[in-house]
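Question (not urgent): is this output format expected?
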Amino acid sequence: MKYGFIGLGNMAGAIIAGMAACGKFKNDYLYGFNRSQGKTLALKEKHGLIPCASAAEVAEKADVIILAVKPQVLPEVMPEIVKGVTKDKTVISIAAGKSTGWYEERLAKGVPVVRCMPNINAKVKASVTAICGGKGATADDIKIADGIFSSVGKIYHIEEKMFPAFGALGGASGAFVLLYIDALAEAGVRAGFSRPMAEEIATATVMGSSALAMDSDEHPIALMNRVCSPGGTTVEGVCKLKELGFETAVQQALQAIIDKDLFLEAARRCTSGCSSRRTPAATDTSCRSTSSCRADLSTRAASPARTLPSATARR
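Got this back:
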């Protein structure tokens, strides 16, 4: 089979590396196009990628087209590839914020589209990827996506309406974890460790705790309680985190991401043509959108992040 990547940034590079390393694609061909020749040549040298001169060439040669460009670039790319994308091909997109319907409106009728959302951990083959098919996607199309993204981590089949939530929980939350590691390391430095050693200890501890949670059938709170000896030191730290609103902060941060995603999606649906695309219709008085569109955007912008129930309340 022939796989073609349009856009060869960090995520596409990680996926190509995963495909090359897993052994399942050794008899297949990998094509790619990127505006920057440097990335193309590097992937050719390292993984045998076959460079293409344009997005249109990728679309013509490949059986499976993986759209890995930034969302704002897609309106330029779609007209270039539409002629080469026929019903016997599969289109896979990893671009954020574009529904399967958005592609189906711009491609020939019946072209199967699969929407996927991996995360940056694909670089170490530890991604979690959401997958869902559009109206024309068959089980075979989904299977193709499964094969690609299982080479860089775990895969989850979800409904498309859950993509904003998945993007927060399975994607953006990685930034929270890295921020937590940095906070641990900084505390370690204050306690007397060198920065490199503190970072290594913090990172290894988070990795170990994650592996323990993944390998156990017990609730994370039950595992935490094993570490918290009655009257001990660990429980003092846990109580301080709870006192300072640790759980609530994480939950509200996650909800803030979901709300922002939904807000931006509503802004993208505003088709009346605001005078400035940098300003959502809700705040642009020159926007000729309908009052209902403006109201929807205003509501999303003004609504505070909803507080999710705490772990204690869920128990």
